[in-house]
Design brief:
With 492 residues, the protein is an alpha+beta fold. Helices cover 60% and strands 13% of the residues. The chain has helices at 9-21, 113-125, 128-180, 185-199, 202-229, 232-273, 282-289, 292-310, 319-325, 332-337, 339-349, 360-368, 374-400, 409-453; strands spanning 25-31, 44-51, 54-58, 68-71, 76-79, 92-97, 106-110, 464-476, 479-491. The strands form two sheets. The chain has a seven-stranded antiparallel sheet, with helices on both faces. A two-stranded antiparallel sheet has the order 8-9. Helix 7 crosses helix 11, helix 11 (339-349) runs antiparallel to helix 13 and helix 13 crosses helix 14 (409-453). The longest helix is centred in the first third of the chain and has 53 residues, at 128-180. The radius of gyration is 40 Å and the shape is flat. 14% of the residues are buried.
Length: 492
């Protein structure tokens, strides 16, 4: 019996951590246990990660230690057309393993056919042999492009030489023409005819005249371009492009912040709330984060559209995109409505008890990432409440540098109107909510004061009946007269 191969588990563990950080592909699959495995034969749900030519499968997405490792080098990966009897229903199977009767075949199942096809393609392309073939193919393509570049360079050199020869010829002809202009008209006509008939054919002269006209128009065009570059219109266009690039950069930063909220806080809290022993209430998680995932999806769509427009530089038109996306920002109503309650709940989650201990969910977040602090979460949750105001200032700046006949201006004006309506609605709801809150606070203060005042434990300095006398003016016909009313009040 041959001795078992030794594998450095610490190295595999370090590679597994790196694979989860930057995988070539990852996702949930169902894995069929091996024939020699221990326990049930049910298909197990595993988090599958492909990194370089190594395939890891974990028990869950948050697990740090892999359940198993598969080297895909020299392995065959194919999609199974037929499904075995114990396979999950409505699933698509693919198998990974070395061909041979004595070799173990790893079977996986996905819920969608597209995912299955993508996994098979990614595993096949992860082998070193496939990478070498792709390298050879790219090298051949590079050699072909280099040969084409050399041919074009030779052609440019040849044409430049021809142009220089033609310029010399043109100068010589001009000198001869100026010398011939001093002769008599008869001799000049004879010399011109002799020159045309014997020295310079007509096609050559026509070609030289066309070249001279092209040079003249080229100089005129260069003058027009130089004047346009220093004009106010060109400066406004450059400022407009700069504002659009700034908008794209700000949007990229904002999308990264939304993804940080989802990855560092929302997903770990949701997993802790859905576990067998929940460490936080799901209602609190829903209240704190509200509809942040829908907001993140809308902004990722918006950022993708901005990238598509930036590729069309210098003709970047983002007005129609803003006109389409800004009505979707009404989704911010729910998030901003819950912002005050969300801040209070976050403060309650991170509160330290009398013994100086933090809540279980805080320890879970710290174990997941050191960045999951109370200050960082508050800072991230405040970003969406300020984003719409940033958009408003940016669109106003864009309108200032966009001319009235620009094709993008009507869309920008419509987008600005839509954003103002959304902001007005949100501010109206916020002011109404603040008014109701203040009213309820005043009513509560009055009620507590009345209860304290009417309590039998209170000692009154003096109480009793007093007469309240009021004087007011009343109109009787054309004369004004004063009237008095008296009413008894019980005072304390």
């Amino acid at each position: 019996m041959h001795p078992r191969l030794r594998i450095n588990e610490a190295q595999l563990q370090a590679l597994a951590v790196k694979a989860k950080a930057s995988p070539a592909r990852s996702g949930w699959v169902k894995k069929k246990p091996g024939s020699d495995g221990v326990g049930t034969s049910r298909w197990q749900k595993r988090w599958l990660v492909l990194y370089q030519n190594i395939l890891y499968y974990f028990e869950s997405e948050a697990s740090q230690r892999p359940q198993g490792v598969i080297l895909v080098e020299l392995c065959d990966c194919r999609q199974l057309e037929t499904r075995s009897g114990d396979a999950p229903t409505d699933s698509h199977l693919f198998v990974v393993g070395i061909q041979g009767a004595a070799q173990r075949q790893y079977q996986f199942a996905t819920a969608m056919a597209d995912d299955c096809h993508l996994w098979v393609t990614a595993i096949r392309e992860a082998s070193t042999e496939h990478q070498l073939q792709q390298l050879v193919r790219l090298k051949d393509q590079c050699d072909r492009l280099s040969s084409q570049l050399d041919a074009r360079t030779s052609e440019v050199v040849r044409l430049s030489k021809e142009c220089a020869d033609q310029e010399i010829e043109l100068s010589r002809i001009h000198i001869q023409l100026r010398a011939g202009s001093l002769q008599s008209p008869v001799k000049r006509d004879v010399a011109r005819r002799q020159t045309l008939e014997y020295s310079y054919p007509l096609p050559v002269i026509i070609k030289l005249q066309n070249r001279w006209r092209r040079n003249r128009w080229r100089r005129k065009f260069r003058t027009v371009v130089d004047e346009f570059v220093v004009s106010d219109h060109a400066e406004a266009g450059r400022e407009r492009n700069r504002l659009i690039w700034k908008l794209v950069a700000n949007e990229e930063e904002y999308v990264d912040q939304l993804n940080m909220i989802c990855d560092l806080f929302l997903k770990p809290m949701r997993m802790a709330a859905e576990s067998s022993y929940p460490k936080v209430d799901m209602k609190k998680v829903t209240t704190v984060f509200s509809n942040i995932e829908q907001i993140s999806a809308i902004h990722e769509l918006f950022l993708s559209g901005l990238h598509q427009q930036v590729k069309k530089w210098p003709a970047m038109r983002i007005g129609w995109l803003l006109d389409v996306v800004f009505p979707m920002f009404s989704i911010y109503h729910e998030f901003i409505r819950n912002s005050t309650l969300s801040t209070a709940m976050v403060r309650d989650l991170y509160k330290v008890d009398a013994q100086g201990r933090q809540a279980d969910i805080v320890r879970v977040l710290h174990n997941f990432s050191p960045l999951s602090t109370f200050e960082y979460l508050n800072e991230l949750l405040a970003k969406p409440t300020q984003q719409l105001s940033h958009y408003l200032k940016h669109i106003q700046a864009l309108l200032q540098v966009t001319s009235s006949y620009h094709v993008d201006r009507p869309h920008l004006e419509q987008a600005l109107t839509t954003l103002n309506e959304v902001l007005t609605t949100i501010e109206g709801e916020a002011s109404e909510r603040e008014r109701i809150t203040r009213t309820l606070k005043v009513e509560g203060t009055i009620q507590r004061g009345c209860m304290e005042l009417l309590s039998p434990k209170q000692t009154m300095v003096r109480n009793g009946l007093l007469t309240h006398q009021r004087t007011y003016n009343s109109a009787g016909g054309s004369l004004m007269r004063k009237e008095k009313k008296q009413r008894e009040r019980h005072c304390y």
